[in-house]
Amino acid sequence: MAREGTAGRTDRACIERPRVESVRTAYGETLVELGEEREDIVVLDADLSASTQTCLFAERFPDRFFNMGISEADMMGTACGIALTGKTVFASTFAIFATGRAWDQIRNSIAYARANVKIVATHGGIVTGPDGASHQALEDISLMRVIPGMRIICPADAPMTRKVVRYVASVDGPFYVRLIRPKAPVIYDDDTPFEFGRAIKLREGRDLTIFTHGFMLWRCIKAAELLEEEGISVKLFDSHTIKPVDTEAIDEAIEETGRILVVEDHSRIGGLFSAIAEEVVRRKPVPMDVIAIDDVFGESGSIDELLEFHGLTPENIKNKAKKLLER
Amino acid sequence: MSIEELKEIAKEVRKDIIRMTGLAGSGHPGGSLSSVEILVSLYFKKMKYDPGNPGWEERDRFVLSKGHAAPALYSVLSRVGFFPRDELWKLRKRGAMLQGHPSRVHTPGVEASTGSLGQGLSIANGMAISGKIYGKNYRVYVLLGDGEIEEGQVWEAAMSAHRFKLDNLCAILDNNDLQIDGTVEEIMDPYPLRDKWHAFGWHVIEVNGHEFPEILSALDEAEKVKGKPTMIIAHTVKGKGVSYMEGRKEWHGKAPQGELIERALKDLE
Ligand SMILES: Cc1ncc(C[n+]2csc(CCOP(=O)(O)OP(=O)(O)O)c2C)c(N)n1
Ligand SMILES: [Mg+2]
User: In angstroms, rounded to a whole number, what is the distance separating the alpha carbons of residues B114 and B18?
Assistant: First the structure.
């Protein structure tokens, strides 16, 4: 059942000096391409178009862009209405306001009706940084995961973001795409395919499997390298699709490594860790552990300070992995 | 305290805002600078409170609904003695008392946790309702942004403040005419403000939000109004006092750095 081959860069150059690129700009640029190709693309934002980069679409297609003001609930409802006339609608704001402020509109107006709305939210996770708890979405994945039929994707870098945005535009119905504020290390090249629901294997290994998504991928690549130096062989998956989670990859991890560590910039309650644990207990329980945000609110700080504080560092991932091997 | 003294304090608060956001390397100077005279009027003249006993039950309450103006609030709170001034220079650093947006569990003197726009008026209503039920004489003040009032919740709260006759509540609107993506008129056009609030049953006063005598007399007038809440529409300039920031949306959420800090401080002298 093991899946053949690996993808993505795990070489020294990428580990030591990664090229970084903005996933938000990748989103905005892809929207412009889609706008050129398709008349039916409409984009909405809630007074954050420079941050989400939907401003690029707004400049090019002012007639198909609507700035809804600071009114997220109204934006989601309006997105739904436009979608129900047969259009493909992208609605963007920060992750916390998209999923929190407008949760009921997403659940009742959009998801229940299977409206063709793509919620692409930026500023996911603790890496949102100095703005603090009010702006750090640490529970957005949980909030979206619990909505029936909602599909959730969290791309790790700019090349993957471009593919994900194109993918969600090509498939009917609601999606939640989580992007982050900082520039992300580039792991994939333009030819790495995005397959919805299918995690990307970056490393082959025997001793344990690490699952991660988004900004943490590069740190996990680094951690896997540190573990390899100590003779520990790590299988590493980029679980970009969080819902539906890749059960084949989970089976492979259970059968071939028997131990699973999940690393994510999100609350440990309801995110990828929960998604995988829910499957593991129903299949064949194996020792698991997690490095994520504990049951606490975020706080202000620089990205590095916050990652360090929450243990989201290659060094800590290595240590957690070694402890997991002792169980 | 004389108007001259208040003006002097406002100048110092503006300098704090520049230094704080400058040191933090991020934050929101524009909307902090526009709200300075309003905050100084409340904390140095109008409100009763006790910095030594922040939980004093009879105190007047202030809710910063436009939470991103936290630097202005923090400067004022430290200047009236809620916490030492050293804290100002740790704004937005990990473990700091002063979070990027106001948090009542982190900071003495902060009454409500805000930052997600559009929620503060409801919170203020709750404080005012409680004051009425339990026979307290405190007043409740809340500062809103003019972009912020695009949130539907604000208008839900506007209705209930009228329905529950909250004459112990006074809202102030920082009408600097800018939000993030443009002028409020371009983005959602919430005008005419006076007519809207009036139609929702509020007593409405308009003032120049940088003139102490006007702000102070409006706050006094609000106190005399019976049976309904008051909205003071304060006409302000975003980035007020710093030439290169005034009226410029670019300075909504960006901190001055390097030479620009010096230029701002010079402007404020
Ligand atoms: C619910 C919510 N949506 C979006 C934001 C992001 N945001 C922060 S400030 C701001 C603009 C605020 O404009 P305004 O209320 O006019 O404030 P001011 O001009 O006084 O700074 C926005 C959209 C937020 N903090 N909360
Ligand atoms: Mg404004």
Answer: 21
